[in-house]
Amino acid sequence: MPQAQFSSAVEQIELVGKVQSKNLGSEDVSERFIDLQARLKSSLREEESLLSLLGRTSTVSEVLTIERELTRVRSDIERFQGQLNFLERRIDLATITVSLSSHHRSSGQWPSALLKIEVNGVTNHVEAVKALIASSDGLVDAVLVSLLEGKESAVMTVHVFSDDFDATVDFLEDQGKVRSKDLEEGKPADYGANDPEEKPRARMDLTFVQDTNSVNIGLMVAIAAPIGALALGVILGIGFFGVVRRSSRT
């Protein structure tokens, strides 16, 4: 489709159902395009030289040799021109690949989710998830919060009832910017749609990472605090020195 319609087409496709994963990318073909143009020009010049040489050739053997070379060069010209035409079409058009599946599929396993979310305030979001899981009678299996190079992160494993799976995923996605997501939905084949679960079986492996912008702001505050304290100390020192000098004069 035309590139100008790419964004609107993606938005329309996303309205069809629930997006499980999305990957947008682009390919820079300018270097390859320039290389093909140079090869094509070189082959065209070679063809012109061979044609000029053919007009001055008198022996049959030389004519046959030149014609073989012309066949090779013209084959190269057609190949280079075809590749250029293909790249030009790729530049003008955008490609969208869509994979559709039913909302609930019998995967032979309980629902599961693997999510990585960028948030502002990792600890607060961990506590919010704990509260949600507790309110839905779920289980928090493991929580590990770490701090590395000033960046806070957390890894959690929780279990919820399969009926609460979709709502929990929606809640998690609202917590911040989803960096990666992998979902499996459904129930084992030996469980009917209305069969009760004795305990929460839908597993969720969650990773929360600190939002880069908030880390930068925190770093600025951390740097500004000692600088401010130093400036205040200098001002107080100057004031004290002035008082001492005035006292000594009197």
List keywords for this structure.
single chain, 250 residues, alpha+beta, five-stranded mixed beta sheet, 6 helices, 5 strands, 52% helix, 18% strand, elongated, disordered C terminus
Notes on the structure:
It is a single chain. The protein is built from six helices and five strands; from the N terminus they run H-H-H-E-H-E-E-H-E-E-H. The protein is α+β, with helices and mostly antiparallel strands and 250 residues long. Among the domains are: 27-100; 112-210, no CATH class. It has a five-stranded mixed β-sheet with strand order 2-3-5-1-4. It is elongated, with a radius of gyration of 34 Å. Residues 215-225 and 243-250 have low confidence and may be disordered.
